[in-house]
Amino acid sequence: MNKQDYKTHTRMHPIYHYVLTVLVLGTLVAAIVQMVRSINEGANILQAMILFLLMIIIVIIAALVRFYPLKAQDRAIRAEENLRHYVLTGELLDRKLSMAQVVALRFADDNEFPGLSKKTAAENLKPDEIKKAIVNWRADMNRV
Questions:
Q1: I want to staple 130 with a disulfide (CB 3.0 to 4.6 A). Which of 72, 83, 92, 104 is the partner?
Q2: Is the pLDDT of residue 5 over 50?
């Protein structure tokens, strides 16, 4: 993808978003079914409970594998956009801006960024509104 805009800016990692998610959720459902069957039949309850607990652990790990890197990317984006705003205006970003707003603002080019940042802070624009307001899109190909 060479060009990025509002319609094409979302990125998915197929192995994580489609394969792993489906496999983990499918196995979790199977573990729940097995646990219910075991309880109803009164047999293999311990094994079914262990399988269910293992699947809960795997679901938590799969979620954390996604959320922790996103938090690190958010911190990096805030620092980058704060620096970019400082270079362009001599001032840091408004502290009222939420992380989601700063993440959305990163798509604005240098000409739009200061004004859109100020407008976002004044009007408390939602991230989707910020992205729709951008005229000249600045692509970010590094975030998944």
A1: 104
A2: yes
